[in-house]
Amino acid sequence: MSQRVPQKLRERVSRDLRPVRPVAAPSVRLLLVILWACAALVAVPAVMGLRFNAPRLGFWLLWGATACETIAGLSLIFLALREGIPAWGAPRGVLVSALLGAWVVQLGVALFTHARCPCPAIAGMGDMACFTTETLLGIPALLLTLVLVIRAYPLSPPRAGLFGGVGAGLLADAVQHLVCPVSDLRHVLLWHLGAVAALGFLGLLFGFAWEGLRLRRFRRDMEQDP
Fold first, then answer.
1. Would you say 112 and 65 are in contact if contact means Cβ atoms under 8 Å apart?
2. Considering the chain, what is the average pLDDT of its residues?
3. Residue 64's closest CA among 98, 99, 112?
4. pLDDT the model gives residue 218
5. Burial class (CB within 10 angstroms; exposed 0-12, middle 13-18, buried 19+) of 112
6. d(CA 39, CA 57)
7. Which of 112, 119, 102 is nearest to 168 (CA)?
8. What one-character DSSP code corresponds to residue 52?
9. Which of 225, 159, 177 is nearest to 63 (CA)?
10. How far apart are the C-alpha atoms of 220 and 213, rounded to whole Å?
């Protein structure tokens, strides 16, 4: 037996009804993130220069690995954008698999790069510098993703924020792969993977904060209604 909707809630909804601007499909909104990724992949190596051991890596381990991480990052952001459309959100199993798949892609790039061109940390090149650079590089992509997610009013802001953050982190790591010559696994798995995890945490934290704000605003509006 279905429960009746409280009259107070019905009146609140009826007063809030107004025309809204349609939200573009996730694939269309994703184009903005793709444009940012393309610009970063061109601008950062142009300014900082490609890693000095790029010739030794070869085309596939340099650009091919970067392409794999870019596609993985964009796929996660696409899942985040789908959270704003009812019935379009992926099942929990798919979302967990997507996160594990992203980690496998980054781990695979690190292992193959290290096997082909082992390069220890360079004196004078702080490990923390890579973490800071990659995190700062991923923040614009994260902010752009969050703006696109908020516009769609996602049903699960924390989940959308988490996937947007990890996706932005993978995009930043794809760019970092072109310029950071260090392939030591301790460096890559701690500082590069750490930057991706930090961006994912920032997205998740934003999602929880925004969800709490929405709930408090709704309760306040309900209490203020006569």
1. yes
2. 86
3. 112
4. 65
5. middle
6. 23
7. 102
8. T
9. 177
10. 10
